[in-house]
Design a protein that fits this description.
The protein is of the alpha+beta class. The protein contains eleven helices and eleven strands. It has helices at 4-8, 79-91, 115-130, 137-152, 159-166, 205-223, 236-240, 246-268, 272-288, 295-306, 332-342; strands at residues 14-25, 35-51, 54-59, 64-68, 98-105, 171-176, 181-186, 191-197, 311-314, 322-328, 347-348. A hairpin with a 7-residue loop joins strand 9 and strand 10.
Length: 349
């Protein structure tokens, strides 16, 4: 591993980090103004930085050094995430001249665990410190999302950046994406949040994700609402009258929002079994109504439930990537062995 000093010949001025996330409940609700319930991972992206003109960055994971001027266009590479952060700050009249950085990430890059949000939040934290910018953690999350949507060109919601910027280890973050209010809820004692990668890359994720987003917009137009958040489960009969597959998409979002509210209450009351059942119900809805599961995720989740998980579901956008399961600490080893046997490609975090 190379150090900042070895790469750039000087010492860094700031050292920051930001975590990846796993979502416990509330999937595909963030771009519908709904509720989400993610928790930060212990896996971090580390960034050491110093002031500079333009970007000069070394990525330890790729053993690659790249530079870019402030007026150069995006290239479709990893440097876009850092360049997007500088770009978005300048767009908001923070005249940052650039940065020199050494980046190292522990967050797996293919499992749907928000390695990009972690990189953006770490970059913005470094720039905040380097140039004394008056930004709070919620503003950092919003800027990170704007960099990803407008510069990198991925139309994501706000969940990942908020989980990385505002989340706290040991807590799940109950977030209302409509007004960005949050509440931290302690994770249950005696249980492990098991994050397991299916090892299937999320190949169709981007096109599938965008299709789902526009289906939600079509459902809103037909129902005469600004966002699906405005609808409660009492309005399901109206939703059922929509044409296929808009009825399914809207039903998922509306019932998923309710599951987050019920799940937060269950965890606050120490009812882990109930929370587990809500995770399973969320998965069924993602599989049948939102249709973002794939056969491998089904096999993995079945194995997790068979080997003792109180709840398990796909996490993130779907179409591959990771699952999240809740497992009693005392049964974790047995769970892991069993899952490995039934789904040998499982990668445990
Ligand atoms: C991706 C996006 C998030 C969210 C999830 C689905 O992770 O980045 O904003 O929409 O998918 O819940």
């Amino acid at each position: 591993m190379s150090t900042f000093k070895e790469i750039f010949g000087t010492e860094p001025t700031v050292r920051v980090s930001a975590p990846g996330r796993v979502n416990l409940l509330g999937e595909h609700t963030d771009y519908n103004g709904g509720f989400v319930f993610p928790t930060p991972l212990s896996y971090q992206t580390y960034l050491e930085a110093a002031p500079a003109e333009g970007l000069e960055v070394y990525a330890e994971n790729f053993k690659e050094r790249k530079s870019r001027g402030l007026t150069e266009a995006k290239q479709g590479d990893w440097l876009d995430y850092l360049a997007g952060c500088v770009w978005v700050l300048r767009k908001h009249s923070h005249p940052v001249p650039g940065l020199r950085a050494h980046v190292r990430s522990e967050v797996p890059m293919t499992g749907g665990l928000s390695s990009s949000a972690a990189l953006e939040v770490a970059t913005l934290r470094a720039l905040r410190e380097l140039y004394q910018l008056p930004l709070d953690d919620v503003q950092i999350a919003l800027l990170a999302q704007q960099a990803e949507v407008e510069y990198v060109g991925v139309r994501c919601g706000i969940m990942d950046q908020m989980a990385s910027s505002v989340g706290r280890p040991g807590y799940a973050l109950f977030l209302d994406t409509r007004d960005l209010t949050t509440r931290l809820v302690p994770l249950p004692q005696g249980y492990r949040v098991a994050v397991v990668d299916s090892s299937v890359p999320r190949r169709l994720a981007e096109s599938g994700y965008n299709t789902r987003r526009s289906e939600c917009e079509q459902a809103c137009a037909l129902l005469g609402v600004q966002s699906l958040r405005e609808l409660s489960p009492a309005e399901l009969p109206r939703i059922h009258a929509l044409p296929e597959p808009l009825n399914r998409r809207a039903r998922h979002v509306v019932t998923e929002n309710q599951r987050v509210l019920d799940g937060v209450q269950a965890l606050e009351q120490g009812n882990v079994r109930c929370f587990g059942e809500l995770m399973v119900a969320s998965h069924v809805s993602l599989r049948d109504d939102y249709q973002v599961s794939i056969p491998e995720l089904e096999q993995l989740i079945e194995a997790e439930l068979r080997h003792g998980a109180v709840g398990a579901r796909l996490t993130g956008a779907g179409f591959g990537g990771s699952t999240v399961a809740l497992v009693e600490e005392a049964r974790y080893e047995e769970f892991k062995q069993g899952v490995m046997q039934d789904y040998p490609r499982a990668r445990f975090l």
